[in-house]
Design brief:
heterodimer; A: 8 strands; B: alpha/beta; Rossmann fold; 2 domains
């Protein structure tokens, strides 16, 4: 009872229900916001559009090297994206998804994490892998599904990266499934004496994925079964063609956090320093309290959803052009770096040229590598003894290859793309 | 009905020649509860220590590896029902593996079927805990834990409520190893759920959804028939390097009682078990219907007067081979094929509806392998293709009478 009487807005105490701390009120009043007066949750920002620190903001603790490293990784993204997007257009890879416009949201958050925090992504977070040291060759290997693709062995679509070494859980296409999984990963971290209080599970998802039941489940789990889970929502305004206005009626994703009892912040996702500061603090809270924390990064999806999508079918080209011009996360950070004397036009030019060259080399190399052996198709379905059905079906394919492999043109041509051209099957 | 078919095929089995003879052996009324063995008196339950220690395929899992694995001497058994055996298995698993945790809806106070009784007190709330009421969350949480190498033993309160977790199980758990080229995997995940009918469960406390998971390669599906089986198979499932759905026939939780070894042991996954041997017909099932099959075989031998006229005397000495499949995925094709090659006849019994059921998959594979050996069509005795109906259950489930009829019809074909 004494707790209630301390609340200033309820001058007359009517007590509370036995199963709740909610004070009883005589006022019949509906509400529809977590903030007072129906105002929206504010967006935290450090740098303005010209790269200047806004009034009242505090710069996060960064030195020149760290800042340059963040910027350089941001710059890498559109270079890789542009190449692989065009390469997909030429039919050299089957699919691709760019991260245009979300470079700050991804790199700012990745830079705020410890190198061994577990990351569970959606699919637009390749930048976090690059930050941790994933090479251009590894990017290409997965997108081409060639024999160096240890992360998926050519079994998944492009951009479904994964790396045990970099604590980056393999991406899968079903949206939001990684969210409750992240709570489980976080619980494992909390139970592991060598990682408890040191590591969290960071889970990325878009605002569209947050409509899935799995988002609800994940938020509930990480708060109820306290688990250090860092929820990072990339609110880029679109889920394929569906604008955020058709995705939810409330105040974005951030407004949901308090409903789950989860510490929450909304941040300008095009301001890499704001994202860095917010995620750093969120991570700290996450580890201290051992519980879920939510960060909603507001950005704009500048590129098409994927190479299978033409976004001008549902949004004006001019809108995209305007966003690119007035609110470019890379340009904004570059202006800041230049104001500090940490970067200049010359460095910009030479660095970009170097990245372009290296990315092109990796691409050329990947393009000429064969796929893994055809028999890999049947591996890793089960651990331990291989069940009879898989064994028999491999034999069935082998018999078919023996019968038709040298004569049926579509197979004959395809077999040449695999290391060993299927011989390991035929001669086994 | 069978006599015209018999006229055509009677040469196949000598004992069928006498098919038209009818003999009414008893004039006394049947005893209360019927003529037949019930679950409580089943001969498949091991009531002595000696029987419980000598189970085919049982593998002792001892901390001391220097001991011979097959030494049964000096080991203890205890009388347990299924829920106690399941609880015992989880206790053993958690004692030996510090990463093992048990979670689900209402598991902390002991579970709605008592399967987790006392575990929270024994191992602490960090290792045995309630989750919010979200099946997709429970499965997803388990996938996450297991992807970190921790042993996750999740409970879905009823198999009927596993469908919200279908996406996490089929798209995520089953494909985890494959899609990551073996870099990640959730082999330490086990999902337990009560399954099958209970007499009054209606649509959503009776289902047998094993067939829905049969196409999810990468998963294993296990269904035990008794306390001893439940403990050995559950320990095998928890330690199997693949995600396993472990379905516990809920009507057996209290009704099936037998001696269960106290020590740590496993029974093999992917292996069927012969409960009777015979050369005339193969009867294949799993879970609760094992006991209906036992009753049906008893009725075949000594039919109650009320139905005796439908059981030709010639068939009463038929030797039926009863097999408990135990693992639904991957199922033991070798054992079933070998048996059907000998018997030439196969009857498959399951509680789930027929269309899309596990029986269809087995029937197709066996007809492919045993085509020239089959003397009758493969028969399936199953639930009907309706939801499990509350007040109609007696006519819905494949009970002893329906199994007996299928056996007689198949023998007479």
């Amino acid at each position: 009872m004494f707790r209630i009487s301390r609340l200033p807005t309820f001058a007359v105490s009517h007590g509370h229900l036995p199963t709740s701390q909610s004070p009883i009120t005589p006022k019949l009043q509906f509400f529809n916001s977590v903030m007072e007066d129906g105002k929206q949750i504010p967006t935290y920002r450090v740098l303005d559009g010209t790269g200047k620190v806004i009034e009242g903001a505090q710069l996060p603790d960064i030195d020149e090297d760290f800042a340059r490293r963040i910027y350089q990784n941001m710059v890498k993204l559109p270079i890789i994206d542009t190449l692989l997007y065009n390469v997909q257009r030429q039919g050299k890879i089957s699919f691709y998804m760019t991260a245009y416009g979300e470079e700050a949201a991804i790199l700012g958050s990745a830079a705020a994490l410890a190198a061994d925090d577990e990351i569970l992504g959606q699919y637009r977070e390749m930048g976090a892998l690059l930050w941790r040291g994933f090479s251009y060759d590894e990017v290409m290997a997965q997108c081409f599904g060639n024999c160096e693709d240890t992360g998926t062995k050519g079994k998944q679509m492009p951009v479904h990266f994964g790396s045990r070494k970099y604590h980056y859980h393999t991406i899968s296409s079903p949206l939001a499934t990684q969210i409750p999984q992240a709570a489980g990963v976080a619980y494992a971290l909390k139970r592991d004496p060598s990682r408890r209080g040191r590591n969290c599970a960071a889970v990325y998802f878009g605002e569209g994925a947050a409509s899935e039941g799995d988002f609800h489940a994940g938020m509930l789990l990480a708060s109820t079964i306290p688990s250090p889970t860092l929820f990072i929502a990339r609110n880029n305004g679109f889920a394929i063609s569906t604008p955020a206005s058709e995705q939810y009626h409330g105040d974005g994703i951030a407004a949901r956090g308090p409903g789950y009892g989860v510490q929450t912040i909304r941040v300008d996702g095009n301001d890499v320093l704001a994202v860095l500061a917010a995620v750093r603090e969120a991570r700290k809270l996450c580890l201290e309290e051992g519980r879920g924390v939510l960060v909603e990064a507001m950005t704009y999806r500048v590129g098409h959803h994927s190479t299978s999508d033409d976004s001008f079918a549902y949004r004006p080209r001019q809108e995209v052009e305007d966003r690119k011009r007035v609110d470019n996360p890379i340009a904004r950070f570059r202006l800041f770096l230049e104001s500090q004397g940490w970067w200049n036009a010359e460095q910009e030019e030479s660095y970009k040229a170097e990245v372009k060259k290296e990315v092109m080399q990796a691409f050329k190399r990947a393009e000429n590598l064969p796929r893994l052996e055809l028999q890999e198709m049947f591996t890793d379905v089960y651990g331990g003894d291989e069940p009879w059905n898989i064994k028999e079906q491999r034999e069935e394919l082998k018999a078919l290859l023996k019968k038709y492999g040298n004569t049926w043109e579509p197979w004959k041509a395809e077999l040449k793309k695999y290391r060993g051209e299927g011989k390991e099957l035929l001669e086994a | 009905m069978y006599s015209s078919r018999l006229a055509r095929l009677s040469s196949r089995r000598l004992w069928l020649v006498n098919h038209s003879a009818r003999r009414f052996q008893s004039t006394e009324p049947p005893p209360a509860g019927g003529h037949s063995p019930s679950i409580a008196t089943s001969s498949y339950l091991r009531t002595t220590r000696d029987a419980a220690l000598h189970v085919p395929g049982l593998r002792w899992v001892d901390a001391d590896n220097s001991r011979l694995e097959d030494v049964a001497a000096g080991r203890e058994t205890r009388k347990m029902n299924v829920y106690q055996a399941v609880r015992d298995a989880m206790s053993v698993a958690m004692t030996k593996d510090d990463t093992a945790v048990v979670f689900g809806e209402d598991v902390a106070f002991g579970g709605v079927f008592r399967c987790t009784m006392g575990l929270a007190e024994e191992f602490g709330r960090e290792r045995v805990f309630n989750t919010p009421l979200t099946e997709q969350g429970i499965a997803g949480f388990g996938v996450g834990l297991a992807s970190m190498g921790h042993t996750a033993i999740a409970e879905i309160q009823f198999a009927d409520y596993i469908f919200p977790a279908f996406d996490q199980i089929v798209n995520e758990a089953a494909k985890h190893r494959f899609r990551s080229g073996g870099e990640f995997g959730v082999g330490t995940l086990t999902i337990r759920c009560p399954t099958m009918s209970v007499g009054h469960g209606g649509l959503y406390h009776s289902q047998s959804p094993e067939g829905f998971f049969m196409g999810a390669s990468g998963l294993k599906i296990v269904i035990p028939r008794s306390p001893l089986q439940a403990k050995g198979l559950l320990l095998g499932s928890i330690r199997d390097p693949n995600p396993v759905i472990f379905m516990e026939p809920k009507i057996l939780y209290r009704s099936a009682v037998e001696q269960v070894p106290v020590d740590d042991y496993e029974l093999p996954l992917g292996k069927a078990e012969h409960l009777t041997r015979g050369n005339d017909l193969t009867l294949l099932t799993w879970g609760t219907p094992i006991y209906h099959c036992e009753t049906a075989l008893h009725m075949l031998e000594t039919p109650p007067e009320s139905i005796a006229k439908h059981v030709p005397t010639s068939m009463r000495s038929a030797k039926v081979e009863l097999i408990d499949l135990r693992t639904i995925l991957p199922w033991d094709v070798d054992a079933i094929e070998e048996s059907v090659r000998r018997t030439g006849r196969l009857v498959i019994v399951h509680e789930a509806g027929r269309t899309g059921g596990v029986g269809g998959e087995i029937a197709a594979e066996i007809q492919k392998r045993c085509f020239l050996k089959l003397n009758a069509p493969v028969k399936r005795v199953t639930g009907w293709d309706t939801p499990v109906p509350m007040q109609y259950e007696k006519f819905y489930i494949p009970d002893a009478l329906r199994i007996l009829d299928a056996v007689v019809e198949t023998l007479a074909y």
